[in-house]
């Protein structure tokens, strides 16, 4: 486990406004309680509480990954009608303490959904 610091900063902050994630014309996530995780020079990633996600469209994937700063990620595929997107969603089920706030949240790959709307 590596700790964020000046050479690799990570911040988790509330994201203002509402986020909706769409696939095949259906909102698979809709939340006003989103967290924005900014890591080093990467673009911010939006983490949406599971309570604001329609899990009926999720199927667990066999894919996993490891981040030395955040921990082990699990992935999910999305299916809405005839639209299917493998490994479109990820979650840190037991994130490292430095990013503990993202526990119970999921993030979406923007290029694997129809859109991530912000208002």
Automatic annotation (TrEMBL):
<dbReference type="InterPro" id="IPR007361">
    <property type="entry name" value="DUF427"/>
</dbReference>
<dbReference type="InterPro" id="IPR038694">
    <property type="entry name" value="DUF427_sf"/>
</dbReference>
<feature type="domain" description="DUF427">
    <location>
        <begin position="19"/>
        <end position="111"/>
    </location>
</feature>
<protein>
    <recommendedName>
        <fullName>DUF427 domain-containing protein</fullName>
    </recommendedName>
</protein>
<dbReference type="Pfam" id="PF04248">
    <property type="entry name" value="NTP_transf_9"/>
</dbReference>
């Amino acid at each position: 486990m590596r700790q964020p610091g000046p050479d690799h900063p990570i911040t988790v902050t509330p994201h203002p406004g509402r986020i909706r994630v769409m696939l095949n014309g259906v909102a698979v996530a809709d939340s006003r309680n989103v967290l924005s995780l900014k890591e080093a020079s990467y673009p911010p990633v939006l983490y949406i509480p599971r309570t604001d996600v329609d899990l009926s469209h999720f199927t667990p994937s066999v894919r996993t990954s490891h981040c030395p700063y955040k921990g082990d990620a699990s992935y999910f595929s999305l299916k809405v009608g005839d639209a299917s997107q493998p490994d479109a969603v990820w979650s840190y089920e037991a994130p490292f303490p430095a990013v503990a706030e993202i526990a119970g949240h999921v993030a979406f790959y923007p290029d694997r959904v129809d859109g991530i709307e912000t208002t």
